[in-house]
Amino acid sequence: MPGFEVLYQAAALCLTYPDDDFRARLPLLREAAPQLRGFTDHAAATGQGELQAHYVEVFDFRNRHSLYLSWWTDGDTRNRGMSLVRFKELYRAHGLEFTGEELPDFLPAVLEFVSRTGDMGMLSEHRDALDQLRARLTAFGTPYACVLDAVCATLPPAPTGARR
Fold first, then answer.
1. Dist. CA 85–CA 105, nearest whole Å
2. Which residues of 92-104 are buried (b: 16+ CB within 10 A; e: fewer)?
3. Which of 18, 47, 50, 118 sits between 20 and 30 A of 161, alpha carbons compared?
4. Is the pTM of this model over 0.85?
């Protein structure tokens, strides 16, 4: 993962709710990850309230834009519980304990994990889900698609025959 640590950390921050801390970090994000300029330029030019409302519209009201990777593979089924356990076990295997309000498959958490450990297994395993999310964000016309574009550009292609 040569040099993608900063990009993944920056992408994780861009995909979380844009609170006051995000606004304060925005100049650093713009400098550190030029691949995300499509999004960070938009965020810099958009008022805080409007940016927050857009985030809620894009990610909180639609499973079509879910940031939870296991939702793409398991949906709202019993199998999802085992997938979430696998994420937690992976974090533990690297000496990290998952804490927080979100589930362990939350894309920003996974991106932060990859930036810290270099273990791209879960991103690669969920490449098809990332491609689906990217396509839906692009079709929706949101600048968040730029963030997924940058992340997906660093990953190997999804295996042939992957679910669409």
1. 9
2. eeeeeebeeeebb
3. 118
4. yes
